[in-house]
Structure formats: structure tokens, C-alpha cells
Amino acid sequence: MIFVTRELYNGIQIDSGWERRAERDWVRRSEIYSRYYEVISTLLPSKVQRLCKHGLHDAFVESVSLKGGTLFLLMDAKNALGGFCGRKVGLTFSGIRKRIAVRGLRGQWWLYEEAHLSSKARFSLHVMFDKSDVEIEADDLLIERM
Questions:
Q1: In terms of residue numbers, what domain contains 17?
Q2: Which pLDDT tens digit goes with each residue over 85-103?
Q3: Residue 47 and residue 38: Cα distance in Å, rounded?
Q4: Cβ pair 120, 97 in contact under 8 A
Q5: First to last CA, the chain
Q6: Which site from 99, 116, 125, 132 is most exposed, i.e. has the minimal number of CB atoms within 10 Å?
Q7: Residue 99: what pLDDT?
């Protein structure tokens, strides 16, 4: 994550010792990211735009597989916030450009995402899960309601 970092996320948690400052910084960085996203969004694949618009905050990674250049995440969005709430959602990223550490993703919660342009692929999606951060550089994304 570039705009909303793990350090900042930890800072907004109760008893971090710097919650107020972290919250101000969080709001400022979120506003900057919103402006940045507005500029680049038309250059991103429509499915990436859809994912960013609806979000998967608090969706649970039910299963994950990486085969060749394809990453599949089955997300349980039953209690998630956003447009995918109440469903299971399959995310298939194809044309993966670099190795992704998928070990340990199963059972984690999707918190936040940032979409970026990439010089190596059509897009780069940075995802903050509750225990790890993942950067997915890919050419395409398929979203399926399961």
C-alpha cells in the first residue's frame, strides 16, 4: 500500500499512542488517493474499477490458489461492507507478472485496496489484509458471484 500504509493502519488502532495524529494523516492520505484514483481510473480495466467502487472490506479469504500466471481468491463477503455484501465472490487475476506470497492468505480478512497503474501489467492492485499486504500486478480481473 502506498497511500494508506500498515504503519498508519496500526496507528489508528485504539491505544497506539498516536491515534489522533494517525486519523488526521489517514484522512489526508485517503483524500489524496481519491484524487489520484480519479485521474487514473479510466486507464484501469473496468473490473478493477468495479472492485474498487464496491470494495470487499471485511470479506474473508475462504480459499486461494496460484497456478501459472493466474491467482484465484474465493472471498466470503457475507458480512463485508460494500457492494458485494452477502455473497461469495470469486476473484480471478490473470496475467500475473510477479510472484505473490499466497501462503497464509487463507483465513485472512480483506481490509483495504489501492489500484495503481503498472509499467509491467495493465494494473497493480495493492491489498491490505489483516495480517499481510499483497501487491498483485496483472493484466485482467474476473469477478464472479458464487
A1: 1-43
A2: 988 999 999 999 888 888 8
A3: 15
A4: yes
A5: 28
A6: 99
A7: 86
